[in-house]
Amino acid sequence: MSISERTTIDLQLEEGWDLIQEGITKLKNNLEGPPDEQLSSKETMMLYTTIYNMCTKPPFEFDYSQRLYDKFRESLEEYILSTVLPALRGKHDEFLLRELVKRWANHNIMVRRLSLFFNYLDQRFIPWLSLPSLKVVGLTCFRELVYKEINGKVRDEVISLINQEREGEQIDWALLKNVLDIFVEIGMGQMDYYENDFEAVMLKDTTSYYSRKASNWILEHSCPDYMLKVEECLKQEKERVAHYLHSSSEPKLLEKVRHELLSIQHVKH
């Protein structure tokens, strides 16, 4: 391919991308501020058509599918690095959890709306080359750039709130449910992230918590009263699963509670 042909291709890509970038900027502004810049259906169709033409216009060397696929990912990465991470890095405690839930929801909206523009890639180009779908690309961007940075801090805050509830304080069940759903959804059908990054540490903390409680309760209560405490704790842990933990945690959680409370109880009585 001659230099002049290459220049023509690069210029056409640049011109087409400038138009697409305007729509992406509008989407970002809509997510970050008042909903006064929503893209109309006409604008959405125009952007879809632009991308469609850039991917299908002959001759073959003018097919920008791979470059547009790469730019889809780059656009999400830029949004995360410039907007999402700075917002999360300034938050702590429950404010961090609420910001994470908001940012996860916005990210999913961004991916869905961007995917409307880039629909041709999902329909033709991606299946043809067996590439990850646009949805998977979007989720992977969030997982690699956001989740991996903050999941430990988020996990510790969730566990802290669980222990506060165990001590009788009221906590926001819906908030914890939304946060833990992210640990599940980030695994794209696998439970590895929920189990390894949250559940394993939560179960270890549960063991420590009830070990301390058992040491005190066994000195303070008669055997019948102690057994009532055990039953009440098991009931409360089941309720935690119902309200915000994943259902797969229930047998593991109850096993830890029974072991810590009843093994000590048997030693004394």
From TrEMBL:
It holds the Pfam family Cullin. One of its GO terms (biological process) is ubiquitin-dependent protein catabolic process. One of its GO terms (molecular function) is ubiquitin protein ligase binding. Residues 22-265 form the Cullin N-terminal domain. SUPFAM superfamilies: Cullin repeat-like. InterPro entries: Cullin, Cullin_N, Cullin_repeat-like_dom_sf. Belongs to the cullin family. This is Cullin N-terminal domain-containing protein. It comes from Acacia crassicarpa.
